[in-house]
């Protein structure tokens, strides 16, 4: 089945809608990663820039940059069709072979993972630059909040910590065949393994998070909203959970206000997504 998957990186909702009614038939899936909106719920950072305009059209603040990652599945592998940046109503393709957008970018610098290493995109100057000298093919990238260190997940499912301005990488041996990675606000690293189950990397090795469904068909992981101080966000068959560094978990229940906010955001991202689609249709 063809599906439109709207995923807000670092945000809370993955919306899956069958596209047959709302969208033209297309032989690919697309993932959209939102950026600059780093705070999915209430902005407690003292900055208003990430709040969703109270508008039923669901438009995002035009001055923020939204990243859209387009890809197709070929033989169960994601193949990039480019990373696009949307700002002030305009869309441009910024990378040809990228699949990864960092979920957290203070100082307007967003890290992107490409087939040939790491790039950094400045959302203010709209300039793209190669970052460091690594040349791995990257499928996920996350940034620590307190440092400039990154973690990357490569195409062969190995996790590395990247330090010294992108010039040094250290393999994270505890993460075995990672499918997805995420950090929480305390800089703990989590990953989803081949079994769709999340693990926390503790000082004494990787620990499986307990209290979650046994055989989920889908799972995603991300930095939690800023209102959640500890733990990471885990989404499993449309049910969100907070997973903790002590390897426990609990389901998260949206309140009405949150539901509303997510719906708005999803509409906004979907609108941008359609625009990308429209503009890139040959
Ligand atoms: C948010 O913006 C409003 C008006 O645009 C302003 O009155 C308010 O002080 C701002 N809040 C913060 C926390 O910056
Ligand atoms: C709010 O965001 C703008 C643009 O990202 C930034 O220039 C400004 O310093 C931020 N203000 C605060 C109080 O964080
Ligand atoms: C809200 O929508 C109205 C009409 O659809 C538009 O004129 C207005 O600029 C929008 N406001 C914002 C903040 O997007
Ligand atoms: C957009 O953001 C930049 C940087 O934060 C700021 O300098 C500029 O004035 C903003 N533009 C609008 C239209 O709000
Ligand atoms: C992110 O890092 C800054 C700077 O160290 C810190 O002040 C802030 O509390 C951190 N944010 C969170 C949510 O932990
Ligand atoms: C990247 O640069 C660092 C420092 O200049 C150097 O030590 C390292 O060998 C380089 N790595 C690669 C993969 O070229
Ligand atoms: C694990 O950590 C969470 C969040 O800090 C806490 O609420 C919970 O009680 C802890 N559980 C155990 C078994 O330590
Ligand atoms: C966001 O902040 C407003 C006002 O401070 C509050 O009424 C609302 O409940 C908050 N929403 C969430 C989801 O925390
Ligand atoms: C897509 O393009 C068509 C025709 O060019 C236009 O009518 C429609 O509004 C566009 N849709 C979006 C979401 O931009």
UniProtKB/TrEMBL annotation:
Residues 41-57 have a biased composition (Polar residues). SUPFAM superfamilies: Calcium-dependent phosphotriesterase. It comes from the Eukaryota. InterPro entries: WD40/YVTN_repeat-like_dom_sf (IPR015943). Residues 23-57 are annotated as: Disordered. Residues 1-20 form the signal peptide. This is Uncharacterized protein LOC114250310.
